[in-house]
Fold this sequence. Notes:
The chain starts with a helix and ends with a helix. With 299 residues, it is mainly α. The chain has helices at 4-10, 15-23, 25-43, 49-52, 56-75, 80-95, 100-122, 126-160, 163-206, 212-240, 247-265, 272-298. The longest helix is centred in the middle third of the chain and has 44 residues, at 163-206. The chain crosses the membrane at residues 177-200, 215-233, 245-263, 275-293.
Amino acid sequence: METIEELKVHYNWTEEDEENLRRVAWIGEKYKEEFVEEFYRHLENFPDASKYLSSKEIRDRHKEKIKRWFASFFTSKYDAQYLKGLYRVGEVHFKIGLPPHYVQASMNFVRSYLMNIINKEMGTSAETNRILISINKALDINLDVMINSFREEELRLYHAMGKYQKILIENVKRISWFFDFFIVFTLAVVGVFLIVWIIYEIWLILTGVLPLERGGLSVLGSILILYAISELLSEEIKHIKGSALSLKVFVGVALAAVIRKVLILSLSPEKVQELITLSLVILALGVVFWLIYRVESKL
Length: 299
């Protein structure tokens, strides 16, 4: 990790920048309470924020730390001690499993908040511009250190592993990639087969081999299955890119399959018992789909 002297050179940080921050240090004291409230409103944008702030005690402790950071942002001397404190913040975020994206998005909020406050309090002037430039430099340094601490902790854990653990992890990653590729390939092939089958059914209808009523319902059912396969393929691609896999897609595929069966059986009055059974299955799958949707929406 870079030293504070190296960071100052990289970000062109000077004594004038520290002086610019100290000149508006009163903003840290005046707005720290409002800042914390606005910051917590910003955290509501993250669907799983409650996972990291799970109790009132944790939230109160976190608010105090945020207030101290906000006030010290203007008054601290940007030296090795300050760098060490920022690094510890990043370490804590890494240990609780907080995604680095949340830190970056939150720092963007801080930047916008400070720009609005500075402009409101000081108006537009050359002095305001100089102060905003220094604030942006300081925020970039803060973000740089905290994000780098994430990376260094990940590397430290990796290097702490034994030789065979690393080999095992690398091989498991390769196997996992092969599985994902095979699933995507298979779904794509099944999708192509379904398209060919739908075209074949339409041809049977046009040639009179398949009655229009039965053929129309069969085509509609096949399209439902194709749509479900398409959704499953899209979900798997998102999963490969790093998103969590949604269970409701699998339930949707099952629903499409059962609905297709019901459409076909609806032309056979003698199969009332089977239709009633399948209708109950559709109802149960619908309830499961709704419950999964509700749960995933809250995450």
